[in-house]
Structures are given as structure tokens and as C-alpha cells.
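Notes to self, Carbamoyl phosphate synthase small chain:
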Amino acid sequence: MKRYLILEDGTVLTGEAFGAQATTAGEVVFNTGMTGYQETITDPSYAGQIITFTYPLIGNYGMNVATNEAISPSCQGVVVREVARRASHWHNEQSLDDFLRQHGIPGISGVDTRRLTRILREEGAMKGMLTNEVHADSVSHLQAMDLPRNQVQRVSIKQAYNSPNTGKRIVVVDFGFKDSILRELAARQLQVTVVPPTTDAGMILSLHPDGVLLSNGPGDPKDVPYALPMIRAVQAARVPLMGICLGHQLFALANGAKTSKLRFGHRGFNHPVREVATGQTFFTAQNHGYAVDKASLEGTPLLQTYVEINDGTVEGLRHRELPAFSVQFHPDATPGPHDAVGCFDEFERMVEGGEGGAGRLESRA
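result:
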């Protein structure tokens, strides 16, 4: 069956339908990872987006529940050059086609993804529609369409829960976190309480946390203003704090910096990052469409700790006086290189040492 990807600039790409028989719209973005399509599709940070995979063959090792980054995927659609109709892996439990059908997500294959990626790189991420029919007013309808905002409320939890362990107490503020973050905390025997994104500082501090982690999540950080007073109050209480991705951007906003939308974002597992203090370079997993404005750091209590080598964007921040830091990339990877997993060790040292952790962080940045 034919399926079409319509872009708001009038581009229409024709391919073959797979996945759910549904019409959907969202922001069309591209991911440069060669593997990890399941973790990508189930990453809540892709909520409301149609994912284009630049690698030409997707689905060849199937899908399995243990690899999901969330219980259910939140993306709007999947675009591939070729979808593997048969999966070959001993962990395989179902095909990509069946997985997308199960969750009501349409896919399109047979698309020239190199051409599509060039369009998105030159014109920027844009609205798109997956449909089985093209009408005379399809493009104008898409152009007039407003995509949903504040996807954080869609993908985050509504009620707090505990993940017991034997170590220090960590509160994870859920803006749409990946399960791999919890796995990294559990690997360090840290006790975790996960709370909704609207939880105020009073409630968080009443849990007597040894540390607070601001998770990743989808969309524009300016759609989450309710989190900023909480972040400021947690900092003021000198509770060690770590932010990841959206959490990094919210940490910046809470301390007076600004954020802006990137043309096509960073999505993939091969993004080179340099540590400012040491010059050390490593590869990272990333998934974000917004970034902290470097110029806006002037006059704030924040120092830049990491920089993206390709475009110079801010990849890490540290508070000058308080035990708090953040990274734009995903140190949990999954999928991706584990070069940056030491950020969790850094956070653990801050937690173990209380306020003294800020000094140890300063030695690196």
C-alpha cells in the first residue's frame, strides 16, 4: 500500500506503508544512529515527532520488551529507506512492523532518506504528515496546523513512586525520562524516588533527598516554566543537583540563561563533545532540538563545562558556588557510546560528599 510523507514546504515523498494504518502529523526530524532504533522509537524525548532514520536498513534485529526506554513509544511516525521484514536476533520477540501496529504508529519505507535529511538540514526540522492519501489542500492544511505543545505532560508520570536500593536517596524529577537513567542510578545502589514534573520544592525537600536529578524530556524548555522555582529552591537548599538534556536546559533557565531552537537539532549517537577544562574529546548520545544560548551565560552563576565540536553549542554547565551541574548529552547512552557515563559517578561523588562535591566537579571543569 502506498503511503506519503508531506512536508509543510510542499515536498511530497512517496513510499510503502508499514506499521499502523493511521494518518498522523508531527515535527519531522532525523536520527544519525546506525543502531538502537528500538531505544530511539521508545525514547519519550521524541514525543510528537516523526523520526527519520538515516541508516538505510532498520528493523533487522527485531524488537524486545527489555530494550524499551519507556513502556510505550511516544513518537508520531517512523520513516526509513528499507524496513527489514524478517528479524534475526536471539532476543527478537516481534518485528518492527508488528510493534508499530501494536502501538498505533504509522511507518513509511522506500523513502529517499538521504534527500529528506538534506532538506531538513538545509530548511530545518518542519511539520510533516504521514497519510495514505494526498489531497489538493493537504499542504495548506498542514501549514495551518498547530502541533501540540508541552509534551512533558503527555509522557511524564502523574504519581510518585519509589525504586528502593541501599544507597543515598535520589529524587528524579520526571520530564520524560529514559529507563537507562534509572538503570545507571541503580547500578550505583542509589535509592530513587521518581516524582511528576509539577512537584514543588517543598514536597521534594520533604523527602530529604541526598541529590536531585532533572531528567530528559521532549519539547521546548520554555513550556515548562513551573519547574524553574523548584530548581532554584533545591539549589538554595544546597542539595546536589544534576540535569540531563531537557533538565540541563531547565537548569540554565532557572539560573538566568536563555535557550533557543536549533535548526535541525542533535539526534544520534556520534556527536563529538569537548571538555572545556581538559580539552578531552569524546562521543555522546544526543536527542534535542533546543540549546542553551552561550552569550546568555554572561552575568549568570553558570560556567560552561562542555562544548559540541560540530557547531559550538553549550553541552554542559556548572554552578559557580553550589553543588549543581548539567549536561546536554545523554551520559546513560543506550544506545550509543558510554564515553560519558562517568557523569553519573561525578553526581554520586557530589551526593556522597554533600556540598563538597562541587569542589570535585570544579577540578574537571
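- DSSP finds eleven helices and 19 strands in the chain.
- The first strand starts at residue 2 and ends at 7.
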